Each structure stands twice: as structure tokens, then as C-alpha cells.
Protein 1
Amino acid sequence: MNRSCKTYRLSIIVRFWIRSRIIGSVLFLSVVIFPPPSLVVAKDIRESGTQLVLLGTGTPNPDPDRSGPATAVVVNGSAYLVDFGPGVVRRASAACRDKGIAALDPGNIKVVFVTHLHSDHTAGYPDLVLTPWVMGRRVPLEVYGPKGIKSMTKHILAAYQEDISIRTLGMENIPPDSLKVNAHEINTGVIYKDANVTVTAFPTRHGDWKETYGYRFDTADRSIVISGDTVPLQSTIDACRGCDILVHEAQTMKYLASPRRPSLQGTDFRAYAEKYHTTTLQLAELAKKAKPGLLILYHNPISLQPKRKLFASTPEDLMNEIRTGGYSGKVVVGRDLDVY
Ligand SMILES: [Zn+2]
Ligand SMILES: [Zn+2]
């Protein structure tokens, strides 16, 4: 059973108290009242094994119930993030506080991957770069993604230069040069490997984007494939091939059939979806061939409160359409902060 972040912090404080007896109670009290960042950032709460944590299952629609796309693979207490849609840092913090996954304390996130550079998948990037740094992260953030991620990183750091100057040169006194982001522009194949995980990037196709990726994670106990945004592809089937979990986007037929959509004025959304996305029926076909142990549906146009949102599909619509498509394997509708 994982210890919660709160429990972990408590245990750190207790241990610190014992040590502090040696160096004096005055120092102890000052540290409890003003804990330094190293005590605030929890780490490693899980002995072993792999967890998949859905941090954001939403779309560009700013639905308060569904944060922007972000998925975490947590292995042996280390987190690996795929995409950083809006809300990612708050959701990671919630996974830490409410689910006891200390690896997702934002200060513990150090390795991240991005499927493509659409804003709904990257609007949380400045937050991910800056907030954990402000709160105490002093190691570089390693970011892997398609061409353009280096330029995006450079421009985000430039955009926040005034903030960075004030925090390093002003009273906060954050060490200069402590904010580092190493952006890696990748190709397909194995792009990352450490003691916990091997990450393989495979090509996806997402409309006019020149370069988009899905990712496969192989750990000691699990294989997980995350599609990102894509039309249905053989490369996704090949990447999965009986994988334990396939996390895949899906557009509902009901949504595509709706004659009135409030956004994308003037856009033929059906034509757009055909070039950029996967329908439920197409995903059912794909999953029959990919044969995942569990199919998780994310990044889809559903509402968890459909009565409050006209024209929205429901989770039941989504599930029914997948079944109508003839897929009989294990499938769930992903929700923010679900852990598998
Ligand atoms: Zn996209
Ligand atoms: Zn998207």
C-alpha cells in the first residue's frame, strides 16, 4: 500500500526531529515552521511495480471535469509523463495528495515526453517548467518530443525571463542557473532507457503535422502504449501487439453527427476528424487487431455532466459505440486521476 504524500512528509519531519535533538531544538522549530523545499518534495512511495495515472483526459474544450491531455507512467517511484496539457501540474499535485503517488509531487517529475506540439497538449509546459522550480526542483527537466520542442522551450524561458530574474536576483534568492530544461528532439525507435523503463517512439499521423509520435513503455512488469492524437494506424497496432494497456483517443460518432457545434466555426469537423483523429468505430477495429489487455479511452468529446452541456456525448455513448464497432475486449472510459 502506498504511503500518502502527507504521511511521507510526516515521516520526514519525525526523522528530522530525532536528528535535530542533537543539534538543538531551536533549529528543529525553525525547520518545522519553514520547511525547506527538500522536505516539501516527497519521493519514492512505491516499492516496485508500474502504475498508469491519467492526469488529464480532456480535449481543447476547457471542461473543469477533464484536464488537458497528460498521462503518467510511474515505475518504482519514478514518474514519466506523456504530454502536458493545461492543468497538468495541479492534477499531478492531486495525484500525489489524494492518491498517495509521491512520484507525482510536481517537484519529482523530471522526465517528460510530448506526442506533438498542439496547444491542448503543451499549454501546461510553462507551468511544468516553472512551478516545480519555484517550489524547489534543482535538477534539469528532461523533455523529449518532435522537432520544435527545442524552440518552444527556448521561447518559454525567454518569455518568463523577468520572472526568472526576480526570483534568482531578488529576495527569494533561488540559485542562478538552477532552472535547466534539456529539450531532446527525437526520431522513432528507442528514445529513452533507464533502470525502470524503455521508451519507444512510434510514428503517428495527425493531419497536417509533419511529425507526431505515440509512445510505448516497457517496464519489468508491464507494457503500456499511449497513442497521442492520431488517425488509426498500423504503427499503433504494431506498437501494442498484445500490450497490457493501450491508451487511445476516440471521437464519438454522435459528436461527429451533431449538426451544431459551438467551436470551429466554418470548419467541416467531420473532414477534419477524418484527417486528424480516430472514431470509436475505427478504434474498435484497431483494438481487435492490437489486442491490448485493457483499452483506455481518453481525449474524446464527452462530458461527465451532459445535462449541462448541449450536444455532448456521454461516457455511455462512447462505450456503446466501441461495443457497436464489435470490440469485446476489456475497455474503460478514462477519467482524470484514475490509476491503473
Ligand atoms: Zn492534436
Ligand atoms: Zn489533442
Protein 2
Amino acid sequence: MVRVTILASGSKGNCAVVTTSRTRIVLDAGLSCREIVKRMRLCGEEPENLDALLITHEHQDHVQGLSVLARRWNVPVYATEATHAAWKRWVTPRNTMSFKAWLEARRQQADMSSSSEAKPELQASDICDTAAVPSLTASEEQEAAQPLNPALLEAERELFPPDVRSDDPAYLPCVEHFRAGISFDIGDITVMPFTIPHDAADPVGFVLQAEGMRIVVATDLGYMPPNVRMHLRGADLLMIESNHDVEMLRDGPYPWAVKQRVLSRVGHLSNDAVGDYLAEDYDGGARFVVLAHISESNNLPELARLSAERALNGRMGLLGNKILLASQSTPLESILL
Ligand SMILES: [Zn+2]
Ligand SMILES: [Zn+2]
């Protein structure tokens, strides 16, 4: 039996646990470690024996509790190399100047020595160092790359035994890099990561196979390209993003630039996009369709449900598909496969 427990889903934090008789893995750590452990215990999942923490991408709502969970509970972290590198940049304090500050510093230097010799104009190539410093982009306001909350991190550091405390914020006890399209095993779970279109360094969805069951997780994607549709086929449990209602987003509180990003092909899936997929392309084989990453600002759970139900009801024979809604505030009752 495979047990899937979605501890949280949404732009304030994503985390799920998949457990077989031999293996227990966590998908994303977008809540604080304390909250993850609290919700795990509430759901009868023990944090003591975690075999892996799989990361989809480096946005804050997927990595907030990563370092503390990995260190405190000694969990190996699995991520693509680019996601790991982007996360490291995010947690490492920046000591590079912004281009504006750097330019000003150069000007002041130049002014101080201008009486002795003429300085050449600054060239575009001068900025290559700063240009090379990547900045995370956000898909929703809450996903913006904020530095980790130092107070939170400090409070949680008290959880660490002294020997695993480290002053390096990017320290992790064990990291495994995977590549999209290349499967690997964790215990008796076979994991196939696949590329999704989203504004992160190297975002992925996952197909997890264990005990004859196929679980597909695809959240945080701007649209559904053929490779994603292919991986969604044959799912027993399909967890798919139903992020926003397009009209609510358009009329909602987000700044226009953020709205555009959410709507873009590297943003998030709308209720309509999921409805179109379920009506036209979905193979109908999943016992459970979980609508996830539902925006609290730009969607209503009932709108997401209605849209999916309407799409499935239009297709004879798919009424057996059970639609579940993942929530931000409370774990979803464990799904048994
Ligand atoms: Zn997200
Ligand atoms: Zn994201």
C-alpha cells in the first residue's frame, strides 16, 4: 500500500509525504521545519525515518524548511544541480553590490583620482560580474525570493544537536543531484523527474512508482507541453495545480507585473487550463485527482472543483474519478493506494 499525505499546498508553502511499507519520502519543504514535523505527526507520519527530501524547484514556498529539516532529521536532499545551486545562492548572504551601487562606487573612485588622469568610460562588459549574479523570479508575490527569516532560522537552529550546527547556511548533510528525464530509486520507490515550464532554475514534476501504483505530481507550471501530458498518463493519483481563476486574478490585488507572470507560460495553471486538459487530453485512469496550489488570493476552492467536475462530467465513464482539494492551512486526509 502507498500512502500519500499532502501536508500543505499553495503559494505559502508546499509539502507532501509519500510512504510505502519500506520507504518514506517528502516532496518539497515549503513550510517551516517545525510546521512540517507538526503536521507529519498529526497525520501519523514519523519524521525520524525519512529516506529523502525531493525538491521540485527553489521558490520559497517549496524550500522554506529545507535546510532545517535536512539537518535536524538528517535527511538526504534530492534536487537538480541547477536547483541546488539556485537555492544555495538564495540562502547565502549576498556580498555583491547592485549595479547601481557599484556604478556609484566607481564614479566616486574616478572623481577622487580624476585630477591625475582621465578614466575611460565604463563599458557594458564591466557589469558582467553583477549580471552573472542570478536573481530568483517569483511566480506569485509570496514566492518572491525573500532571504530566509533569520529569526526563524535561529530559533530552529536550537533544534540541531551541536555537532550538526554549521555557520554555512547552505550546508546540507547529504545532497544527491538528479536530472530531469533520468529515473532513480529511493528504497522501493522509483522516481522519474520531468521538466515543467516555470520561472525557476530547473523546475521539475515527479512520477513516483511503487507497489504497482503511479503517482504524478505537477504543480507550478505555466502550461502543459507534450512532455508533461505524456508523464501524466496512466496515473493512479494525479496531483495537478489549479492555481487561479483567470478573472479573479485579473481583477485581484496583485500588481500588474505579477499578474502577467502568473498568466505567462512559465507561471501557473488556471482552473480553465486544468479543465481543458481534463476534458480533452486526460486518460481518465486516476482514482484520485488532487487539485493543488490553489491561490488564496485569486481562486476559490469551489471554483477549482467546479471547473474540474464540469470537465470530467462531460466525459462519460469518468465519474469514478475522485476530485480532492489540497489546502494551505490543513493537511489533506491521507490517500491510500
Ligand atoms: Zn509554488
Ligand atoms: Zn514556483
